[in-house]
Structures are given as C-alpha cells and as structure tokens.
Amino acid sequence: MSTTPAWAYLSDDGTGEEGTALSRESLAARARQAVLDLIDDDGLGEGDTLPATGALAERFGVSRTVVREALSALAALGIIEIANGRSASVRAQDHSLIRFSLARALRESPGGGFTALMDLRSPLEARAARLAAVSLASEERSADRQGLADLLRKMGEALEDSERYPQLDLRLHGEIARLSGNLALQGVLDAVRTPLFRAMQDLRATRDTRGLVGAEHAEHVRIVEAILAGDARGAEAAMAEHMEAVASLDAPTAPRRTHPHPG
C-alpha cells in the first residue's frame, strides 16, 4: 500500500522541476494517480463510491475539469464506473489489463518469451502448490481434494492425447492456484493463461518429437499426491522440480498449433 497521501501528488505550486507550468494533461495524469492512491489508501472495493467531483477537486487543489478528465481515463481503464447523477464508484477487478501488459512483456522478451514466462511462473507455481497443500489439509475440503484427484485421473487417461492433455495440464495448474487461496497469486497466473497454454502446446510437441511423453505426468502425480497428503514442503519441492524440468526443455521448437481455448 502506498504511504504517500493522495493530495501530495498535486499539492505543489503548479510548476514542474524546471519551473515550467504543468499542462492540463500532466495535472490529469497526476490526478489519476492520486485517485488510485485514494482508492488504495482508503481500502475501497467493488461498489464503493468516491467523493464527489467537487470534493476531489478541492482535496487535490485542481479544477473540476482536471478531475473529470482523470475520472474519465480511469473509467476507460475499467477501474471505476461513472453513472449520470451519481459519484463514481469502484468497479470489480478486471484482469484484462494485467493480462495484456504481461503478454506484451513476455512477447517482447528475448527468446520469444519462454524463459521470461518460466522465470515468472516458477516461484509462483511452487508457492501455490505449498499453499494448496496447507489449504486442503482441512477436513472441510474433501470435495476439493476429490476434484483434484479426479482431474489427475483424467490427465492419466488423456496422456496419449496430444491435444487434450495440454488442456488438462493448464486446468490442473489453474486449480492448484485457486486452491492456494491467494487471489493475487491466482490473478497473476491467470493473466498469463494464454501464453502459458501456447507454451504447453509447444512443449507437448517437443515431448512427442523427443519421446518424452509421460515424464511430465509422473511429475504431476508427485505434485498432486503431495498436495492431497497435506505435505506442503513436498508439494512445493515437487512443483519446483516440475518447473525446472519444463524449463530445461527450452521449449518450443515445433510449429505453433491452433486449438480451441481450453475449458
């Protein structure tokens, strides 16, 4: 959480570092950041309303026009919602911006993004496995434990299916992230879902070519068995080993294939 009061972004004399007057665009950009910090500092969530435009203008020491421009920009980004005759309110979280930004960063990374993808997901996946094992240790999570076991069984049955197995693979990692109970971790991993699925498709093609099909499933079995046993350390270690094995394939040399988006 930011420790800088929202008004601090605008509480100067209206000049930049070199003494030139700030443009309205600069003020609006600073007002946007001030509103974001206000939402964060005040712990506002979905449906909570922001102060009225006039109150924000007075709080930030800028005109109503600047505040309206800042709010309009935040509404366009899907962060807030503006309704006629009412104060702006905070919208539900939308991961599309994170998804777009991460996908672009991965795409622009050296090597087509595979190394960057693995650098991002490896520690998060290992942590998710650990948290999932802790979470499922509770007797009340029997349905989740059964669901995870059923998913692993389906993966075993689909092992020879080069199209179906990557879909279930993606689903397994998404389910482990969900079971971790950490919404931030789950959100980041969900944001790279599309490039991750493409990598899984290409990795499967690489395994098919090199005769390595089956090794990944053995790794998945060790991960799930540790989670179901409530072995947090073992689950984390098994996931870390799986991530290292995946990275060592140095993906994807096979042609990109197109499949329906996994369910």
From TrEMBL:
<protein>
    <submittedName>
        <fullName>FadR family transcriptional regulator</fullName>
    </submittedName>
</protein>
<dbReference type="InterPro" id="IPR011711">
    <property type="entry name" value="GntR_C"/>
</dbReference>
<dbReference type="InterPro" id="IPR000524">
    <property type="entry name" value="Tscrpt_reg_HTH_GntR"/>
</dbReference>
<dbReference type="Pfam" id="PF00392">
    <property type="entry name" value="GntR"/>
</dbReference>
<keyword id="KW-0804">Transcription</keyword>
<dbReference type="InterPro" id="IPR008920">
    <property type="entry name" value="TF_FadR/GntR_C"/>
</dbReference>
<keyword id="KW-0238">DNA-binding</keyword>
<dbReference type="InterPro" id="IPR036388">
    <property type="entry name" value="WH-like_DNA-bd_sf"/>
</dbReference>
<keyword id="KW-0805">Transcription regulation</keyword>
<dbReference type="Pfam" id="PF07729">
    <property type="entry name" value="FCD"/>
</dbReference>
<feature type="domain" description="HTH gntR-type">
    <location>
        <begin position="25"/>
        <end position="93"/>
    </location>
</feature>
<dbReference type="InterPro" id="IPR036390">
    <property type="entry name" value="WH_DNA-bd_sf"/>
</dbReference>
